[in-house]
Design a protein that fits this description.
The chain has 290 residues and is α/β, with parallel strands linked by helices. The chain has one domain: Alpha-Beta Barrel (TIM Barrel), CATH 3.20.20. It has eleven helices and eight strands. It has an eight-stranded parallel sheet with strand order 1-2-3-4-5-6-7-8. Strand 5, helix 6 and strand 6 form a beta-alpha-beta unit. The longest helix is centred in the last third of the chain and has 15 residues.
């Protein structure tokens, strides 16, 4: 594993130990057909241990989806895996620039949800807006999202969404990358991040990133050895400044991902952009916190 510094994980789920039981219960309840590597040294832990791990591998920042827990949330709902406001606030204060939030919105909440999002984006450690696409079965160009895209425009924050299929038992059609086509046209100053590589529509996601200067790809949830060949070619070539590293931790452990990354043989400039440089340019508030 090559030593690097300034790395940013563009999507990491809640990592504190109290979520491990929920995580395991959700995988079992959904019968998720993906193999999740289990390593106690690269999984759930307390904040102090996570910082030690991050320091050891040169990982500067975790970008964590954060939301309120709705009263109806069940064992398989994404909100359970997101970090809480009461969890991120002390972390952001104690470790400035190490733990930051992307405020995860529910597009069905209307004005109430928009007001809450506006309130949260005023906090300096909120560096992006976010949605877990498949929880709501709405394509990226659904009208419900447009007020939040407008908020992203007003605040200068990027908008992150899961593109592609869902690992859980949720409809996947809503994750088609082509759905970002109209939003990217209507909001040219908003940076959109299509996370989770867009699989199985990876080439469609790449087409969007090539077409629009404000569309980026994220690698969360898939370890490097599972990246589509077209994605690797994109990262090495035209997309060297358009892709960003992510894990969807604990789906992919950080050490596990970095060990596989070395096998791709990326040149230093490409690796530096992928592992932190591109994310730093998109999540601009991070640079104001350190």
């Amino acid at each position: 594993m090559a030593e690097r510094a300034g790395m940013i994980d563009s999507w990491a789920n809640a990592f504190l130990p109290d979520r491990e039981a929920l995580w395991n219960a959700s995988l079992e309840a959904q019968g998720v057909p993906i193999k999740v590597r289990r390593d106690p040294e690269d999984s759930f832990c307390d904040a102090e241990t996570m910082v030690e791990r991050m320091d050891a591998i040169g990982l500067q920042t975790l970008v964590l989806p954060v939301c309120d827990l709705p009263p109806h949330a069940g064992v398989t709902d994404f909100e359970g895996f997101a970090t809480r406001v009461e969890e991120i606030e002390p972390l952001a204060s104690k470790y400035p620039g190490r733990f930051v939030a992307q405020w995860s919105i529910d597009p069905r909440e209307g004005a109430e949800g928009l007001d809450r999002a506006r309130e949260m984006t005023a906090r300096p450690w909120v560096v992006a807006l976010h949605t877990h696409t498949h929880s709501f079965d709405l394509p990226f160009d659904a009208a419900d999202y447009y007020p939040y895209y407008a908020l992203a425009h007003e605040t200068g924050l990027p908008f992150v969404m899961q593109a592609g299929t869902s690992g859980g038992r949720m409809p996947s059609q809503c994750g088609h990358p082509i759905g970002i086509d109209r939003p990217a046209i209507y909001f040219p100053e908003v940076d959109f991040v299509l996370s989770h590589t867009g699989w199985p529509w990876v080439e469609e996601a790449i087409a969007m990133a090539l077409k629009f200067s404000n569309v980026y790809l994220g690698t969360a949830s898939l370890p490097p050895k599972r990246w589509h060949a077209a994605l690797v070619d994109f990262i090495r070539g035209a997309g060297r400044r358009k892709a960003m590293f992510g894990t969807s931790f604990p789906t992919v452990g950080h050490r596990h991902a970095l060990a596989q990354l070395d096998a791709l043989g990326l040149d230093e400039d490409t690796a530096s952009n992928l592992m932190g440089g591109n994310a730093a340019r998109v999540f601009r508030r991070i640079g104001e916190l350190a």
